Amino acid sequence: MKKVLVAILFIIIGLHTSFAQPSNVVDEIIAIVGGEIITRSELEKEYATYAAQYNVMDNEEETRCLLFSYLLRQKLYQHQSEIDSLVFTDQEVDARVNYQLNYWLGQVGGNEKIIEDAYHKTMSEIKKDLREVVRNQMIADKVQQNITEGVTITPSEVKRFYDRIPYDSLPTVQPEYEFGHIV
User: Fold this and answer.
1) 31, 37 contact by CB (below 8 A)
2) 38: nearest Cα among 67, 60, 58
3) Cα separation of 43 and 65, whole Å?
4) Cα Rg, the chain, nearest whole Å
5) Residue 180 carries which DSSP code?
6) Is 50 in contact with 56 (CB distance < 8 Å)?
7) What is the pLDDT of residues 63-106, one digit of tens each?
8) Main-chain phi, psi angles of 87, to 5 degrees
């Protein structure tokens, strides 16, 4: 009995000291998928990129949740690509990166300064960071393609699937937009 009390006392003291001292966490692992890890800084970097690209600051928590879900899918695809031995050459990745940068430049009238200001980086730094993102996206696209390449479904199959579900078991989807027309 004394040993149990002493153990509980040490646990309480340990919890107290861990909460009493300020945390100096540099980064932390928030998820592991296969052998791939997702860190808090990776999520924050993704959020910063998203906010810069779409200039959106509403619903930060919801946006972070969606980006976290996106990162989980990406890591899952990366893990599956290692299993499937998918590789892309540097030339393929560079071509896609250049296409993306040219698209962005076309959106801003060819002014590199606007893109550099949005990302707070030089074009070469943006290109370097973009290479990893593009490579991961190419992997995700290929894995998705491999998964769905033999899948065919018709509208009548979808209708039959939903007809088999009892009407009262279907979830109610709230309308996001309502449209009215007065004639």
Assistant:
1) yes
2) 67
3) 9
4) 24
5) -
6) yes
7) 888 888 888 888 888 888 888 787 888 898 899 999 988 888 88
8) -135, 150
Residue tagged 């003291």 (tokens): 13
Match 């699937």 to its residue by tokens: 161
Those residues whose C-beta lies under 8 Å from the C-beta of residue 97, and which sit 6 or more positions away, are: 127, 130, 131, 134
Which amino acid makes up residue 49?
A: T
Q: Which of 39, 54, 170 has the alpha carbon at shortest distance from 119?
A: 54
Distance CA 83, CA 147 (A): 13
Strand ranges for the chain from DSSP E: 29-33, 36-39
pTM: predicted TM-score of the whole model, two decimal places: 0.56
Task: Give residue 116's identity as a one-letter amino acid code.
Answer: E
* 127-156 confidence digits (pLDDT tens): 888 888 888 888 888 888 888 888 888 999
